[in-house]
UniProtKB/TrEMBL annotation, chain A:
This is AP complex subunit beta. The lineage of its organism: Eukaryota, Metazoa, Chordata, Craniata, Vertebrata. Residues 527-639 form the Beta-adaptin appendage C-terminal subdomain domain. Adaptor protein complex 4 (AP-4) is a heterotetramer composed of two large adaptins (epsilon-type subunit AP4E1 and beta-type subunit AP4B1), a medium adaptin (mu-type subunit AP4M1) and a small adaptin (sigma-type AP4S1). Interacts with TEPSIN; this interaction requires the presence of a functional AP-4 complex. Interacts with GRIA2; probably indirect it mediates the somatodendritic localization of GRIA2 in neurons. It is a peripheral membrane protein. GO terms for biological process: intracellular protein transport; protein targeting; vesicle-mediated transport. InterPro entries: AP_beta, AP_complex_bsu_1_2_4, ARM-like, ARM-type_fold, B-adaptin_app_sub_C, Clathrin/coatomer_adapt-like_N, TBP_dom_sf. One of its GO terms (molecular function) is clathrin binding. It comes from Monodon monoceros.
From TrEMBL, chain B:
One of its GO terms (biological process) is protein targeting to lysosome. CDD domains: AP-4_Mu4_Cterm (cd09253), AP4_Mu_N (cd14838). Belongs to the adaptor complexes medium subunit family. It is found in: Early endosome; Golgi apparatus, trans-Golgi network membrane. Signal peptide: none annotated. The lineage of its organism: Eukaryota, Metazoa, Chordata, Craniata, Vertebrata. This is AP-4 complex subunit mu-1. Adaptor protein complex 4 (AP-4) is a heterotetramer composed of two large adaptins (epsilon-type subunit AP4E1 and beta-type subunit AP4B1), a medium adaptin (mu-type subunit AP4M1) and a small adaptin (sigma-type AP4S1). Interacts with tyrosine-based sorting signals on the cytoplasmic tail of cargo proteins such as APP, ATG9A, LAMP2 and NAGPA. Interacts with the C-terminal domain of GRID2. Interacts with GRIA1 and GRIA2; the interaction is indirect via CACNG3.
């Protein structure tokens, strides 16, 4: 904010600068200019005399010239249009015979900073700066300070570009990253309630990304993520996901109440998404959620009941303390479940926890009665297991129908898998009831699974390079499968030291960099030709090692094993075993060895319906650099073969 | 950096197609995009989509689009670029096309194909943005917009808002505001006009006991200027206007908002002292200021709903009595009010008693729709609806009750427009133009205020 009390001063100085008598007297003229500079240094707004100062620059007095240039460099950003007038003088000075004048003019011209870049230019420059690696910590913070104003730009594109740059530059300073995310919270929230649905969607995807690392970041703003009736489906689904992730002790009541409202939405998809969301909140706030879910069963609506039962199944597995409540809620559900998923969930629950559900045998009996008309083989399999389990705890009520079911499955069933399962249980029963108990009485819950599943609080650095790109908008999983262009993913969670790869190295053009990544570094990896490993040896080593890396490559169409084998041979990868073409799922086992004796054992798994090839690599010496090179070799081969096929 | 840009009509007909880099397929991408869009499963977002080409690695293409005025504006790119910048660019393009063609729509675009191509040529070069400033572009654009009918001052009687896209798009675009920024030099003199709109979107959530759970106001001051470029204008806002929770101004309650952002061309030197925004608006549309306000509204909410539900479980008869009170000042009114109430599944019949004849109520898509074309401030309207819901089970664990609403009923949501009313209380005090003795008649200034509902939800 300029200091406002100096208006008279400015007027007086302006008059003095225009006075031809003063202009004629070199010393007096210089004095007036010095006064302007003094006021400027004190913080007064002297931009009012810009015109007069520009005129004063046309002088042979070097001291005066220097003073005027100092003034111009300070005020040029405020008066960009007037600064253009000074350019003329500066250009003339550049051809002055005096080298000092030339140098001065050039330096001043370079420091005339005009905020000429529009928002598109700014976004481009911010993106370009991602390639720069600061040489020292001091330089890093200088850059951050310079760019701070872009975090407050009115254009979301610029703000997000700046945010990404900050996150990546400050990768070793988590508190700076948190500060930055704090600063742009307002912009993200505003974009989330933007009138443009599309912008809103992109912002929501990024909010989810931020929540992965800072779960409490948006908790106090939970109301912003309530859905409104008129919003399109894809925004509602994102908002529900966000609500699940930001729930905490203070807002859980309100969030659950809101979600409950969505469960009866006209759109079945949205209603089901809301129920699953309540289910995932139930892992932390079990009692409240189970109560809501139980109430929903009272609606007796097919699409609701089936999802609630599936949610219950997952819940008792993760949170055994809610088993009692779930068991009480189950009776009656069977009447309004028609689909395979729902039936499987219900039957599983009745089998595992049937001891506590009085009418469990009779519900299963209904299923057994109607097994002939059951269309889903998966339901029949589930029914076999459930009934056998229930037989162990309530033999008297189950024995008869178990016999009937086994008879049906063995004698009449057409589906081979179901028949085999039936035969297996039959033989198991012949081996004695103790043997059955030993095999079927598996644990009824496993709360530890939750820890694996949640993977709470991923570091900001794990996604910083994806911020403000299409990755969060597609979702990480979809991105991995659709993006063929994507080179080897070097920043998996197990390889944190290479996370900065994409931004390191001073200013390598993007295309070249990709090529650099693509080429296997010959110093790091040299696969030995004619490496031979027997199948037995492979199997032994394979079983003894852990998977060092797992990744998915996009793949279309069928596999031609011969072509693939030949291609792999070219890069010195030996094929140990391979399915014939057309097998589903299709698998192959590969082996290779580098010059240091490190073995790379690989499994390829192709599931045609997913359009992707999953690779799992094991290594007998843990060395990430060579592993990465090996994977990029493998990807090049698979990518090439995949292209020829499709 | 974008590879292609095209505009499709709502039916998928390509209206405009431009390839900037020649690095990708061909024209059939437009058709491909539409096929993908219509074939999308319900749970997938249409914002970005991908196609994998048959050829080499670099044939992957991302489609990113916005929907605007019933058109699809689509950009394709093969890079993993910033979605924010690209979506912003598409919105900006929509505004620009609207500025230059008068309004954005299927008809105007197809009438002005040459102009649109000319604009695209100047805005994007080899897929990179050159400039999107209306002012800069005016120097390069030669084609004149083809307008469907000549502009006449009589149209001003029905001046609507140019920018506000309400849910039903019921605010008819004003023909005065929807004319191209660039038009033949001959009648330049009569087009000295400027439109200033304060538009607020209101989203509200009210609990079943009547307590307010959430209020959110998103406001914008939008300007559409047809003045000669470079003329300065000053916009005076309500003096009590303050930003943030701590600031207090004057005595009285003050007009408070939580956050404000301004367009980069706005000078704020008089804002602190007098709440005056100074700017030299370029031709065309511009969002001068955006602000938001949560939780703490200075005036009462425009509507309160008092529902009472009687439900006889035995006979399956559901009776809903809705009383709607409008708490606006008596001189104001709400237009196009519509109440939407989702009903339990299986509702078969409806009988209604409405408090005035101009209202209408009907069943559709599992919900009750109650239309009230006009509601005067301070008035109270009511409707009694009786429905038959055979075979609906009650909430579990309770006997037959007549007060607990059946599951699946509600929440009610209202949509409406409030002309000449802002929920935050923000008003434009004055709009002054720097005096320019050009011989022109005094410029016309139009200042309008409007609030409309974004989501106004009342739990039952």
């Amino acid at each position: 904010m300029p200091y406002l009390g100096s208006e008279d001063e400015v007027k007086e100085l302006k008059k003095a600068l225009c006075n031809p008598h003063i202009q004629a007297d070199r010393l007096r003229y210089r004095n007036v200019i010095q006064r302007v500079i003094r006021h400027m240094t004190q913080g007064s707004d002297m931009s009012g005399v810009f015109m007069e100062m520009v005129k004063a620059s046309a002088t042979i007095d070097i001291v005066q010239k220097k003073l005027v240039y100092l003034y111009m460099c300070t005020y040029a950003p405020l008066k960009p249009d007037l600064a253009l007038l000074a350019i003329n003088t500066l250009c003339k000075d550049c051809s002055d015979p005096n080298p000092m004048v030339r140098g001065l003019a050039l330096r001043s011209m370079c420091s005339l900073r005009m905020s000429k870049l529009d928002q598109w230019g700014q976004a481009e420059v911010l993106n370009f700066l991602l390639r720069y690696q600061p040489r020292s910590e001091e330089e890093l913070f200088d850059i951050l300070n310079l760019l701070d104003s872009f975090l407050k730009s009115s254009s979301p594109g610029v703000v997000m570009g700046a945010t990404k740059l900050f996150l990546i530059l400050a990768k070793n300073f988590p508190h700076v990253q948190t500060d930055v995310l704090m600063q742009v919270k307002g912009t993200l929230l505003a974009a989330c309630s933007s009138e443009s649905r599309e912008l809103c969607f992109a912002a929501l995807c990024h909010v989810r990304q931020v929540l992965h690392s800072l779960p409490g970041h948006f908790s106090s703003h939970y109301k912003k993520f309530f859905c409104s009736y008129s919003e399109p489906h894809y925004i509602k689904l994102q908002k529900v996901e966000v609500l699940c992730e930001l729930v905490n002790d203070e807002n859980v009541q309100q969030v659950l109440e809101e979600l409950r409202g969505y469960c009866t939405d006209v759109s079945a998809d949205f209603a089901q998404a809301a129920i699953f969301a309540i289910g995932s909140i139930a892992r932390t706030y079990t009692d409240q959620c189970v109560q809501i879910l139980t109430e929903l069963l009272g609606l007796r609506q097919e699409h609701i009941t089936t999802v609630v039962v599936q949610t219950f199944r997952d819940l008792v597995w993760l949170c055994p303390q809610c088993t009692e409540a779930v068991c009480q809620a189950l009776p009656g559900c069977e009447e309004s479940i028609q689909d395979s998923e729902g039936k499987q969930a219900l039957i599983w629950l009745l089998g595992v926890h049937g001891k506590r559900i009085p009418n469990a045998p009779y519900v299963l009996e209904d299923f057994v009665e109607n097994v002939k008309s059951e269309t889903f083989p998966a339901v029949k399999m589930e029914l076999l297991t459930a009934l056998l389990r229930l037989f162990l705890s309530r033999p008297a009520e189950c024995q008869d129908m178990l016999g009937r079911l086994l008879y049906y499955c063995i004698e009449e069933e057409k589906d081979m898998a179901v028949r085999d399962r039936g035969l297996f249980y039959y033989r198991l029963l012949l081996a004695g009831i103790d043997e059955v108990k030993r095999i079927l009485r598996s644990p009824q819950s496993d709360p530890s699974l939750r820890l694996l599943e949640d993977q709470a609080e991923r570091p900001v650095n794990s996604w910083a390079s994806d911020f403000n790109t299409l990755v969060p908008v597609y979702g990480k999983a979809r991105w991995a499968t659709i993006s063929k262009c994507q080179r080897v993913e070097r920043h998996g969670p197990e390889l944190p030291n290479t996370a900065s790869f994409a931004t390191s190295g001073p200013l390598i053009p993007e295309e070249n960099k990709e090529r650099v990544q693509e080429l296997p570094d010959s110093r790091a990896l040299m696969l030995v030709p004619n490496h031979q490993l027997t199948a037995e040896c492979f199997e032994k080593t394979w079983l003894s090692l852990k998977v060092a890396h797992q990744q998915v490559f996009p793949w279309q169409g069928a596999v031609h094993p011969d072509t693939l084998q030949m291609a792999l041979q070219v890069v010195n990868i030996q094929t140990i075993a391979m399915n014939r073409a057309g097998a589903q799922p299709w698998k192959a086992y590969l082996s290779a060895q580098d010059d240091t004796g490190c073995l790379f054992l690989t499994e390829l798994l192709l599931e045609p319906e997913n359009l992707q090839m999953q690779i799992s690599v094991k290594q007998n010496k843990a060395r990430t650099e060579t592993l990465n090179s090996f994977i990029s070799v493998l990807e090049t081969v698979i990518g090439t073969i995949g292209d020829i096929k499709s | 950096m974008i590879s292609q840009f095209f505009i499709l009509s709502s039916k998928g007909d390509p209206l405009i197609y431009k390839d900037f880099r020649g690095d990708s397929g061909g024209r059939d991408v437009a058709e491909l995009f539409y096929r993908k869009l219509t074939g999308l499963p319900g749970d997938e977002s249409p914002v970005v989509m991908v196609t994998t080409g048959g050829g080499g690695h670099h044939d992957d293409r991302h489609f990113i689009h916005i929907r605007h005025s019933g058109l699809y504006l689509v950009a394709t790119t093969s890079e993993n670029i910033s979605p924010f910048s690209l979506l912003e660019l598409l919105s900006r393009l929509a505004t620009l096309l609207g500025d230059y063609c008068g309004s954005l729509g299927e008809a105007t675009i197809s009438r002005n194909v040459a102009l649109v191509y000319e604009l695209l040529d100047e805005v994007l070069d080899y897929g990179y943005v050159q400039t999107t400033s209306t002012e800069m572009l005016r120097n390069f654009i030669q084609t004149e917009a083809v307008v469907s009918k000549p502009f006449s001052l009589f149209d001003l009687s029905s001046v609507g808002l140019f920018g506000a896209e309400t849910q039903q798009s019921k605010v008819a675009p004003s023909s005065a505001a929807s004319r191209p920024v660039l038009s033949s030099r001959s009648d330049q003199s009569q087009k000295n006009e400027v439109f200033l709109d304060v538009v607020e979107r209101l989203s509200v959530l009210i609990a079943s006991n009547g307590s307010l759970l959430k209020v959110d106001v998103q406001g914008e001051i939008r300007l559409k200027s047809f003045l000669p470029s470079g003329s300065e204008m000053r916009i005076g806002l309500t003096e009590e206007f303050c930003v943030g929770k701590s600031e207090l101004r004057g005595y009285g309650p003050g007009i408070r908002v939580d956050e404000v952002s301004f367009h980069s061309s706005v000078h704020l030197d008089e804002f602190e002292s007098h709440r005056i925004l100074r700017l030299q608006p370029p031709h065309g549309e511009l969002t001068v200021m955006r602000y938001q306000l949560s939780d703490d509204l200075p005036s009462p909410l425009p509507f309160r709903l008092f529902p009472s539900v009687h439900w006889d479980r035995g006979s399956g008869r559901l009776q809903v009595y809705l009383k709607l009170r409008c708490d606006l000042p008596p001189k104001s009114q709400a237009l196009n009010v519509r109440l939407h109430l989702p009903l339990p599944r299986g509702v078969v019949s409806l009988s209604q008693e409405l408090s005035s004849p101009e209202q209408k109520a009907e069943l559709g898509e599992g919900a009750l729709r109650w239309d009230l074309p006009r509601v005067q401030g301070g008035s109270q309207l009511s409707g009694l609806f009786q429905m038959d819901v055979p075979g609906l089970p009650g909430p579990p664990g309770q006997g037959p009750s007549t007060s607990a609403p059946p599951l699946g009923l509600g929440p009610a949501s209202l949509s409406f427009e409030l002309p000449r009313h802002t929920c935050s209380g923000l008003q434009v005090r004055f709009l002054r133009l720097a005096f320019r003795p050009c011989g022109n008649a005094n410029p016309h200034k139009w200042v309008r205020h409007l609030s409309h509902s974004d989501a106004y939800v009342i739990r039952i």
